[in-house]
User: Which sequence fits this backbone?
């Protein structure tokens, strides 16, 4: 895999390193946080470039200092994006952290909707795009991260359709019911869909995203593939892992440290543990964020001390809260709340030899972090919402002695993979108190067994595997995308087609109607041809060298009404009926309709249960339309109906045709391809053109001779030679034929 990727360009809001400047000297330091920690090891695997904000305000750096920081960052394979203070306030502290973050974590009450935040968010996404445009090389693979850059994938895809673009969201993607609250919901989804591959931590986030796509934009979705007309996006769950080896190894080294090498924090911990037998530490580590459920944890711990007083003076909660986004009001409030809670609990319960909560409001160097992990037998991690939560995984990786219990909120993405932890609801104080008790009392053998399963899983699906899987999938999607890209109608191909047209003496056009010549309406009765279309078609058919065949799934009556007096041949009901210009309708093939009464009750049952759907009764087929139904329900019912029909149809010589938001049942062996083939037999043509938009048109393309020019509207998986975006593009082509 590594050999295929020439260079990996990673883009995230923050670079994995921060800059500190003192006396004109630049110090580059690694950043703390899930994304930075995780992706750092990935970036080291490839020839890579990491683009992001350095954490400095643009105006605080003189031009000379900028040059120096650029230079220092270049050594780390980083390229900074410069953002001014006011912009950071609106883009980062504003839209990213006062709109998206709370909303995506279900804190709707904290979510703020300011137009100017949004506008700056758009501008900064554009700035990232601008820098990428300057630096991207044609063989690069691009991996964009997280909620600060939701618009970037599309901005890049539009300029560089051939560059593989991956996107990973590190936070939850909320249910559509929450996401729809956002005024800029469509722009956000469209922005994300610029990626070839969209990764989420869990299947639930993936499911929520797909549901929003379906409801807001109406794209067709097959399993995890979104059909965007001329390209596709694949959506998948990639639960992020940790650098297991590093944590495990560091924990082993921690145990071997001799007295004098021990860090102060470790000495303090050992001092505490040695003061009386049976003393234990419960650890919690998070950024100080309202999503992490820190007050809940404190309340639950207090409740535990009350409910199980035998543990007074025996158990201490070590709580590391890393300062975060402290310019946002909600973060200042949560800080105040936590400070007060810790103060109150310690005030009420502390004794001379014992403090119930050790509270650190700062970040620790990695070695001290390891000391904390290693010395604590229990971790208490209680977020009210968390995309994944790597701390839970890191804690497990440091348990080298077969002892340790993890208590984990079921609202963390990590809970999906860590069923052997004690899972709790972070709002249930009693359950958490009992979980702490359970953890303290858990027999050694049980701890060991649970740990082993957890460790085995984390070791296997570690950060490298995670990134490798994502990259493999991205390259695979990109590969398929290339094939579709090759099918885009190019001016070169168009030119060739028009040259052939000009030279030809006997030409034939097979044109599907709905979705190919006109757009879809909620009710098919309303899609009558407009004057412009009539004009194009008539002019095309008026050329004595041209024969125009409208070939559709429509019933005869609408076609007669609309085109009865036109110089076209008409094929209706997918090839059941043929009407040669100026003649009467004739049946291509004789067949019965007795089967309809067997099928009708099944279709009716689905109409009754699915508001907005209806049955269309054609002469030799029956159709269930679900375009007007709720998109999610419609898609689900369509699946069910297909399944049900399959068993019903077994002995009836019927088949199911799946069209655009329709399911049609009709006699086996009749299709547009067969009908077209018969027409082609009647004469010799030196120019053949076919256009269609759905699965039923695939029969047409399949039965066309190799030299035919075939065009599919907006469907990437096709036998047609070329793809166009919309029915307007087809009209545009037809217009060129007649001009
Ligand atoms: C977001 C999502 C998702 C913490 N304190 C210190 C320190 N850390 C390191 C931990 C861990 C990381 O920071 C925190 O990661 P989390 O996953 O727990 O949480 P978020 O920062 O909120 O991350 C989250 C993650 O992205 C990845 O996708 O899991 O759900 O919210 O690696 O070890 N590291 C050091 N000192 C500290 O004081 N050195």
Assistant:
């Amino acid at each position: 895999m590594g050999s295929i990727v020439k260079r990996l360009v990673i883009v995230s809001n923050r670079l994995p390193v921060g800059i500190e400047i003192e006396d004109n000297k630049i110090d580059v330091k690694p950043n703390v946080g899930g994304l930075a920690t995780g992706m750092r090891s990935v970036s080291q695997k490839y020839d890579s470039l990491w683009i992001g904000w350095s954490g400095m305000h643009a105006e605080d750096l003189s031009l000379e200092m900028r040059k120096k920081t650029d230079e220092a960052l270049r050594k780390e394979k980083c390229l900074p994006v410069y953002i001014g203070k006011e912009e950071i306030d609106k883009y980062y502290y504003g839209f990213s952290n006062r709109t998206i973050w709370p909303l995506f974590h279900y804190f709707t009450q904290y979510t703020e909707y300011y137009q100017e935040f949004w506008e700056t968010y758009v501008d900064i996404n554009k700035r990232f795009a601008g820098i990428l445009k300057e630096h991207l090389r044609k063989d690069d693979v691009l991996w964009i991260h997280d909620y600060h850059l939701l618009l970037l994938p599309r901005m890049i895809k539009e300029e560089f359709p051939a560059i593989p673009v991956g996107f990973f969201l590190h936070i939850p993607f909320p249910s559509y019911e929450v996401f729809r609250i956002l005024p800029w919901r469509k722009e956000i989804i469209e922005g994300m869909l610029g990626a070839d591959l969209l990764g989420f931590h869990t299947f639930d986030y993936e499911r929520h995203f797909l549901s929003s796509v379906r409801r807001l934009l109406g794209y067709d979705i097959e399993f995890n593939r979104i059909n965007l007309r001329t390209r596709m996006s694949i959506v998948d769950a990639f639960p992020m892992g940790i650098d297991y080896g590093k944590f495990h190894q560091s924990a082993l080294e921690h145990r071997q440290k001799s007295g004098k090498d021990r860090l102060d924090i470790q000495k303090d911990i050992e001092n505490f543990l040695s003061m009386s037998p049976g003393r234990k530490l419960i650890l919690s580590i998070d950024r100080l964020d309202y999503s992490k459920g820190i007050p809940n944890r404190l309340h639950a711990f207090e409740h535990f001390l009350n409910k199980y007083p035998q543990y007074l003076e025996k158990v201490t909660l070590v709580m590391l809260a890393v300062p975060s986004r402290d310019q946002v009001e909600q973060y200042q409030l949560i800080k105040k709340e936590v400070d007060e809670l810790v103060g109150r609990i310690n005030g009420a319960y502390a004794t001379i030899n014992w403090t119930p909560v050790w509270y650190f409001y700062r970040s620790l160097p990695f070695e001290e972090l390891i000391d904390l992990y290693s010395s604590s037998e229990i971790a208490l991690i209680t977020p009210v919402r968390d995309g994944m939560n790597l701390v839970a995984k890191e804690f497990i990786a440091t348990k080298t002695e077969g002892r340790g219990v993890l208590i984990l909120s079921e609202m963390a993405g990590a809970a999906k993979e860590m069923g052997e932890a004690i899972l709790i609801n972070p709002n249930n104080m009693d359950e958490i108190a009992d979980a702490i008790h359970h953890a303290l009392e858990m027999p050694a053998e049980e701890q060991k067994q649970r740990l082993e399963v957890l460790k085995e899983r984390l070791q296997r699906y570690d950060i490298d595997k995670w990134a490798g899987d994502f990259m493999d999938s991205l390259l695979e999607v990109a590969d398929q995308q290339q094939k579709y890209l090759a099918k885009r109608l190019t001016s070169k191909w168009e030119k060739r087609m028009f040259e052939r047209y000009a030279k030809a003496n006997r030409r034939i056009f097979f044109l599907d109607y709905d979705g190919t010549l006109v757009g879809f309406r909620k009710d098919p009765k309303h899609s009558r041809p407009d004057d412009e279309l009539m004009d194009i078609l008539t002019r095309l058919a008026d050329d004595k060298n041209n024969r125009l065949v409208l070939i559709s799934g429509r019933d005869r009556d609408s076609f007669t009404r609309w085109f009865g007096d036109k110089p076209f041949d008409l094929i209706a009901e997918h090839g059941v009926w043929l009407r040669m210009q100026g003649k009467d309708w004739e049946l291509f093939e004789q067949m019965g309709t007795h089967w309809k009464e067997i099928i009708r009750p099944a279709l009716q049952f689905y109409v009754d249960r699915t508001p907005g759907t209806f049955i269309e009764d054609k002469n030799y087929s029956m159709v269930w339309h679900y375009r007007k139904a709720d998109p999610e329900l419609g898609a689900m019912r369509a699946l069910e109906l297909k399944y049900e029909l399959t068993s019903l149809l077994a002995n009836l010589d019927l088949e199911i045709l799946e069209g655009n938001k329709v399911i049609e049942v009709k006699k086996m062996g009749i299709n547009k391809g067969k009908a077209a083939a018969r027409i082609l037999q009647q004469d010799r043509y030196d120019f053949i053109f076919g256009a269609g938009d759905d699965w039923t048109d695939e029969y047409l393309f399949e039965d066309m001779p190799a030299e035919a020019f075939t065009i599919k509207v907006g469907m990437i998986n096709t036998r047609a030679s070329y793809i166009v975006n919309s029915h307007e593009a087809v009209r545009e082509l037809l217009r060129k034929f007649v001009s």
